[in-house]
Amino acid sequence: MVMTDSQKCWLNGQIIPLPEAKVSIMTHSLQYGSGIFEGIRAYETSEGPAIFRLEEHVNRFMKTARIYMMDIGYTNEQIRDAIIETVRENNLKSAYIRPFAFYDDSKVGVSTYNKKISVFIGAFEFGKYFSNADAGLKCKISSLRRFDSSSLPTQAKGSGNYLNSVLAMKEARRSGFDEAILLDRNGMVAEGPGENIFLVRDGKLITPGEDSSILLGITRMSLLELARDMGIEVVERFVHREEIYVADELFFCGTAAEITPILNVDGVDIANGKVGPITRKIRDEFFNIVQGKEPKYSKWLTKAMAEIDG
Ligand SMILES: Cc1ncc(COP(=O)(O)O)c(C=O)c1O
Q1: 109 CA distance to ligand 1 centroid (A)?
Q2: CA atoms of 141 and 182, how far apart (whole Å)
């Protein structure tokens, strides 16, 4: 991730230089993790940057705001246009886009009553999330469980939700693994700290469903549709921990992680430690789509330049 002083961002309706977007150290959302956010990618295409599934990301951002009872003061349309404007203003070929709404108030106290809400959108160059994404990951089943909606809304991207992810990731990294896999409170497979998980067994694609305390990933939803279109059977169901070790193939997916193979879990090689054919096929097709090479899926892309000029 590269952020420079010459970059611009959108803050409360205005494009301003990034260094001017400042907050107090006592800001409520910094102190209590009360912000909400999205993570979106724009890919380089022959017609300029194309934002992947923009409407879906904006919808999830607005739903997160609703779940966290934050009146952010902008419509879906306004946030959508602001995202496009931010990508364009930064002259980016490709980008990671971060909409963020937060309590911009530094009075001490947990209450959010009458606190000002600010909305920020940043966009910056971003490469691979995992440096070894192509080679595949070594994962650990976390000793921490993924929270469920009796304590925090699993379907919302609230900043505070991510402390569960941060702890699971720390545990995995400190134990020599690349990433964690979290089980839900019942011991069923949920997801990674910032990724959904897919297994391949007997040619079928299997992924934990909505009742496994997962974030309903937009990449996950796209891959389910894509796999069906490719004639691959897909199943959303509870996944037992032991199924991980005997999977034919295993991979993470997400906006940041894209499609990243998992080749070892808890020291057990998956698919003999090699990237499997179904993962490869889906990954290749996914990258063709995001780069605008598959007209059938052009509806998933918003061309930032065309949108503003046209
Ligand atoms: C906890 C969690 N699960 C799954 C995902 C994947 O979701 P998406 O594909 O919408 O990025 C993310 C990333 O946003 C995440 O943070």
Answers
A1: 30
A2: 6
d(CA 3, CA 182): 31
For the whole model, what pTM was predicted?
0.96
Measure the N-to-C terminal CA separation of the chain; round to a whole number of Å: 30
DSSP annotation of 146: P
Cα 37 to middle of ligand 1, angstroms: 11
Cα(212)–Cα(186) distance, rounded to whole angstroms?
9
Q: Which domains are delineated in the chain? A: 8-124 (3.30.470.10), 137-290 (3.20.10.10)
Average pLDDT of the chain is 96
Residue 309 has pLDDT above 90, yes or no: no
For residue 307, name the pLDDT band (cuts at 50, 70, 90).
Answer: low
CA Rg, the chain, in Å?
20
The confidence score (pLDDT) of residue 310 equals 44
Write out the catalytic residue numbers: 157
**Of 145, 255, 282, best ligand 1 pocket probe by most atoms within 8 Å of the beta carbon:** 255
CA distance 48 to 304: 7
Spatial separation of the C-alpha atoms in residues 165 and 126, rounded to whole Å: 20
298 confidence band (pLDDT: 50, 70, 90): very high
Residues pairing with 236 in the sheet? 207
Distance separating alpha carbons of residues 133 and 176, to the nearest angstrom:
16
Residue 134 above 90 pLDDT? no
